[in-house]
Amino acid sequence: MNQHAPETLLEFADVTFRYPDGNIGLDGCSLRIARGSRNALIGANGAGKTTLFQHANGLLRPQGGTIRYAGQPIDYSRAGLRRLRSEVGLVFQNPDQQLFSASVREDVSFGPLNLGLDTDTVRQRVAKALRAVGMDKLSDRPVHNLSFGQKKRVCIAGVLAMEPQLLVLDEPMAGLDHAMRQELLAVLDDLHARGITLLLATHDIDFAYRWTDRIHLIAAGACAASFATPELPQHADALTAAGMPVPGIVELHRLLCQQGHPAFAAAPTAPRSVGELITLLNQGKDS
Amino acid sequence: MLIEQCAYGNRWRAVSPAAKGLFALGGFIAAFAAGQPKAALTAAGLITLVAVTGAGVPLSRFTRIALPPLGFLLVGCLSLALSLGWTTDAQQGQELVVRWLPDGWEPILNLAGRSIGALAALLFLAATTPLTDLIALLRRLHLPEVLLELMVLCYRMLFVFSESVHDTRTAQAARLGYAAPRLALRSLGSLAGNLTVQIWQRAHALHVAAQSRNNDGPLRFLEPEYANAGRDLALAGAGAAVLIGIALVLS
Predict the structure, then answer these.
(1) How close is the nearest chain A Cα to the Cα of B37, in Å?
(2) pTM of the full predicted structure?
(3) I need a labelling partner for A44 at 20 to 30 A (CA). Which of A206, B10, B69, B171 fits?
(4) 3-state SS string over chain B?
């Protein structure tokens, strides 16, 4: 093994899970999440994303295969699950599924109090988590008077207050307008800068290509491909097979290269965003 | 919703709910200690004055909140004003008799005065204190956990389901679900059925979400802190004593 390879924080090895009604949740799913990385889990509806997330948090137990956290197989005892859930925070897709209390501050305190922390520590953690998601000014507002995006941020704060190493977000951008997405993205950038490992499910392939370090494709409960995000153009077939489109910027870059655009003669690697593409085009014009 | 708006938007939002609760309790005691209707009504007037000038609850809103319970009170008073009974007549036998004010105005006025006083005290608390603060206060007063958890979840879900009802009703109305009485009845039935399923699903989802945050039974929340809680409590105690004193003096 390469000495400089990043440490694996979470590993699924050939994990299978079937729901009681016979539906396949996971079918021989294997993937690795490196510590400190930003990961996107991409797949069509019903591909097994939420099932995988619930396994990561210990809510579901695999019927086959192994899940390792920080190199150790998950311990499903009461104490083991308690440890795991304090390390792996799960943010659900629908905020109303996660928010218990009508008070923002109360709800954020729910997780750390469950960890058995003393009141002063919980108070500090709640304040820190609300600051981290930019909700400290709205902590006295009732949850039902918050916007959808603000509710999502409260959900993230509720998990952050437990100080997890790995934050798992189930379709965090779903239902958010552009401004709310940008706000949430700034929060996620900040968390990543603090060293928190991020794993999020998304249907937005353009966003995943622009923002993440690694992409995992899931189809019919199995991890169809797992690659470093810059290598995405080489996995276009896997994306198509998983029912996902190729990012628009990759298509555009391929077309410009085919047409022999001078800007890309020296930089054959596809840009990750429209901004990068424009920079390359301007450089080609100047040279 | 009107109570919610007042509770979250008044000047005394950050005042300790214990202090507001003590003042309201003083109002209750004053209303019941009042021997004369004028004493109870004076207490009610003072409590309303405190809510309007002190907490900044608009009088029009306070009155609108008070109207439905006052309507119930009116019906209660009417039932006291009328009395049904049977008279025994040697020649004509038993006869149903309706009497107007059998005991005069006094018991009705006493009841109305006390009820209005108690209502003012209760509305003062409801219009100045959000339910989340009240639940936190009840937790400090060691109300059984199971009741508190039910209150927390019911209060939260009230808004989730009211939104759901609104969305479903709108979707039904958009497809002419309420265009005729027969259709309306059918739509209402399916709305209730849909909501029942949603309640089961939400309950399961909340259980899973609680587990994911390490919950193992009771729902624990952080108690809010209030600056100057001691001072507010002393002031509320003094206010409550004044209310009770006035009620006793005027009786």
Answers:
(1) 39
(2) 0.82
(3) B171
(4) CHHHHHHHHCCCCCCCHHHHHHHHHHHHHHHHHCCCHHHHHHHHHHHHHHHHHHCCCCHHHHHHHHHHHHHHHHHHHHHHHEEEEEEEECCCEEEEEEEECCCCCHHHHHHHHHHHHHHHHHHHHHHHCCHHHHHHHHHHCCCCHHHHHHHHHHHHHHHHHHHHHHHHHHHHHHCCCCCCHHHHHHHHHHHHHHHHHHHHHHHHHHHHHHHHCCCCCCCCCCCCCCCCHHHHHHHHHHHHHHHHHHHHHHC
